[in-house]
Design goal:
Rossmann fold; Arc Repressor Mutant, subunit A
Length: 226
C-alpha cells in the first residue's frame, strides 16, 4: 500500500516509516496538519496513520476535513491520549481505528494490514438502500435525509451493509469486530458501540422515524426494518 504517516515527533515518524517500509509498503511522511491535508488528498494514497496532537491543525480536524475529500480513505488514529472521550472524538471525526502510544509494532502492522484488506471491498448486495425515510448510498458513502447529504465513513458503511445483508437476525459485537474491523472477536473494546452511537447521531435525528439500527439486549445490533 501507499501509506502516509503523519507524526510531529521526528524519531517516531522515522521509526514508523522504517517499520512500514520493511513490511513492504510505500511510505510517505508529514509533520503537521496542513501537510497532512495536502498529501492526504492524493487519490493514489491507500491509508493514513494520523497522530492526534499535531502542529498547525490537530489530527481530529485533519480527519474531519479529509472525510469530505476521501470518504473511503482508511485512517488509523495514533495518540498518547487513550481516554474514552478522545476515542469518541476520533471516531466521530471519521477515524477507522485507534492505537494508543506506547504500542506494539506487531499490533500496529496487523491493524494497518487489516485496514488495508478492507479499503476497497467488493460490493455485495444493493448499493442504494431506502429505509425509514433515509436513503443510504453505500457506494458514495453518504446518507440522504430530509433533503440533506450526510457523509459516512467507510466503517459506518460497512456496518450498515453487514446489518442489512443479515437483517433476518441479530449481529453480535464480536461478529462486527471480526468482519468490519478485522480484529479478534474476543477483544474487550467499546469501539463498536461508540461507532454505532455516532452513526445513529447522523441518520436517526428524527425520533418519529423508525430506527435503522436497533440494539438487541444481550446480543448486539440488528437492522431496524425487515
Amino acid at each position: 500500500m501507499k501509506i502516509l504517516v503523519v507524526e510531529d515527533e521526528v524519531a517516531l515518524r522515522e521509526g514508523l516509516v522504517d517499520l512500514l517500509t520493511g513490511a513492504g509498503h510505500t511510505v510517505l511522511a508529514a509533520a503537521d496538519g496542513d501537510e497532512a491535508l495536502t498529501r492526504g488528498a492524493d487519490p493514489t494514497l491507500d491509508l493514513m496513520i494520523l497522530d492526534l496532537m499535531l502542529p498547525k491543525l490537530d489530527g481530529t480536524e485533519v480527519c474531519r476535513r479529509l472525510r469530505e475529500l476521501r470518504p473511503r480513505l482508511p485512517i488509523l488514529m495514533l495518540t498518547a491520549r487513550g481516554g474514552e472521550d478522545e476515542k469518541v472524538d476520533g471516531f466521530g471525526a471519521g477515524a477507522d481505528d485507534y492505537v494508543t502510544k506506547p504500542f506494539s509494532t506487531k499490533e500496529l502492522v496487523a491493524r494497518v494490514e487489516a485496514l488495508g484488506r478492507r479499503r476497497d471491498p467488493a460490493p455485495e448486495g444493493p448499493q442504494l438502500i431506502e429505509c425509514a425515510g433515509c436513503q443510504i448510498d453505500l457506494g458514495r458513502c453518504e446518507a440522504r435525509l430530509n433533503g440533506q447529504s450526510i457523509p459516512l465513513t467507510s466503517r459506518e458503511v460497512d456496518i450498515l451493509r453487514w446489518l442489512y445483508q443479515h437483517r433476518s437476525r441479530a449481529v453480535s459485537r464480536s461478529e462486527l469486530l471480526e468482519v468490519v474491523w478485522g480484529s479478534p472477536g474476543d477483544l474487550q473494546t467499546r469501539t463498536v458501540d461508540m461507532t454505532i452511537a455516532k452513526l445513529r447521531q447522523k441518520i436517526e435525528v428524527d425520533s418519529a422515524r423508525p430506527k435503522l439500527v436497533i440494539t438487541v439486549k444481550g446480543v448486539g445490533y440488528a437492522w431496524g426494518e425487515r
